[in-house]
Amino acid sequence: MRHAHTVEQVRAAEAELMARLPEGTLMQRAATGLAVAISNFIGHVYGARVVLLVGSGDNGGDALYAGEKLARRGAGVIAVLLSDKAHPAGLAALLVAGGRVGSTEDIATADVVVDGIVGIGGRPGLKPQALAAVQAAEEHGVPIVAVDMPSGVDVDTGETPTEHVKAALTVTFGTHKICHLIDPAAAACGPVHLVEIGLDLPPAGVQSLQTADVRALYPLPRGESDKYSRGVLGLIAGSSQYPGAAVIAATGALAGPIGMLRYIGPDSVAEAVRAAHPEVVAGEGRVQAWAVGSGLGDELDVAKVRELLDAEEPVLLDADGLKALDESGDHDEVLITPHAGELARLLGVERTVVEAERLKHARMAAEQFDVTVLLKGSTTVIARPDGEVRVNTNATAWLATAGAGDVLAGLCGSLLAGGLNPLDAASVGAYLHAAAANLASAGGPATAIQVAGKVAEATRLVLLEIDSGG
Ligand SMILES: NC(=O)C1=CN([C@@H]2O[C@H](COP(=O)(O)OP(=O)(O)OC[C@H]3O[C@@H](n4cnc5c(N)ncnc54)[C@H](OP(=O)(O)O)[C@@H]3O)[C@@H](O)[C@H]2O)[C@@H](O)CC1
Ligand SMILES: Nc1ncnc2c1ncn2[C@@H]1O[C@H](COP(=O)(O)OP(=O)(O)O)[C@@H](O)[C@H]1O
Ligand SMILES: [K+]
Q1: To pair with 257 at 20 to 30 A between CA atoms, which of 62, 107, 279, 399?
Q2: Domain's final residue, options 182, 208, 234
Q3: Confidence at 465, pLDDT banded by 50, 70, 90
Q4: Which domain holds residue 392?
């Protein structure tokens, strides 16, 4: 499990640890890890040109001490001081090691710029001098390694209300922060490298499943299992307007753990589903969970969906099905899978607002409708009514293709029917969906059906303990 802690939690853990260690120990641990990560990033140290952007706090201190270590190994290190309060001991150490103080003019010829402007003590945004330095790096194509996080992002929400650094690599300390996992800030981090510094942290409110977690959660058939005990999913999807959605969702569902899929919908669509998947049973019957809504268009039967929402079986509500959701009733076992536009409609706000504040709106909808919310997008945010959040960050942008959401709805519905609770079904489903997309895409385009076609292989790789880079 990858954990993302709040600034408050990190500060408390830092204070507790610092009280037991000689002064400066934590910063030295951070700076050592940072220097190693920077040298790995540029590939060589001797003769490398490194420019440090140094703000007024300990984030700048980390950059200065890392600069000192690189200078001792023969790098040319120049500190651009963005404040007259730059960490005095760090600056002295850099100068003794042969580094010097320079200006933004030095950025043009640098191999790497190190962003030590602000860390967890930062407010969103960049002051003019910092912004000018960052723009100089961008203009000259000099990659930026961010210390702890790209300066200017909102650390605890992942929002980027104004100017911020766009890093090629982020080196963080002790634990991940929320901005590393939630877009749009996560997209500004580049790959995130975690340096252990020994913090003892409480449970995190935001987590991200890793391969081993997915393996541990996946519902496996047992020796005595039959097709019913493995779980039966009822699928209400597709319409004369969008028959393909039913076929695609069925493909996603059958690639999940269920033993049987029942399809309920117009005869012509049922025929298309059974032409693609002869194993699908058409018509009502007992099910362990429902997946409702993909491609229903105008053929949504609101009364029927509300009846299912009020029944005991877990329900996944997607796309057009979301129109039947209201705030009444007990929705403990309901998982909704909107994209930003659909969540915006549910909450009565603009889509751009949801996109800019994804964590906030996913949590808000979970609480307001008493459901688990899976908010789709470049990073998938899954929020429970009690505020617990999981994030999936392993998707490729090639997954942004028509029908990909139908695959996800089928797969997550299948996991619900297989016995997972909505939070686990959503997070395991999002992980495997993205892993399948990575296999299908392999760096190029892939259709939704091709993604669905790779879910079984992605699952097999997870279960066989092979990390597919998902
Ligand atoms: N926690 C840990 O476990 C460890 C932490 N470590 C490191 O310490 C870092 C935190 O350091 P920190 O607390 O000194 O805060 P930091 O982020 O450097 O900001 C300082 C000052 O910046 C200012 N400022 C604010 N916003 C601004 C803006 N937008 N633009 C410009 N300036 C802005 C504001 O001052 P003001 O402007 O209010 O005078 C604020 O007080 C952490 O990220 C990590 O790198 C590691 O060394 C070891 C382990
Ligand atoms: N930029 C992106 N990077 C990675 N995954 C994405 C990106 N944009 C969308 N996705 C994923 O692609 C899928 C698209 O689903 P959706 O918007 O419902 O499409 P559709 O309705 O056509 O099926 C979701 O799983 C979403 O998380
Ligand atoms: K930073």
Answers
A1: 399
A2: 208
A3: confident
A4: 211-463
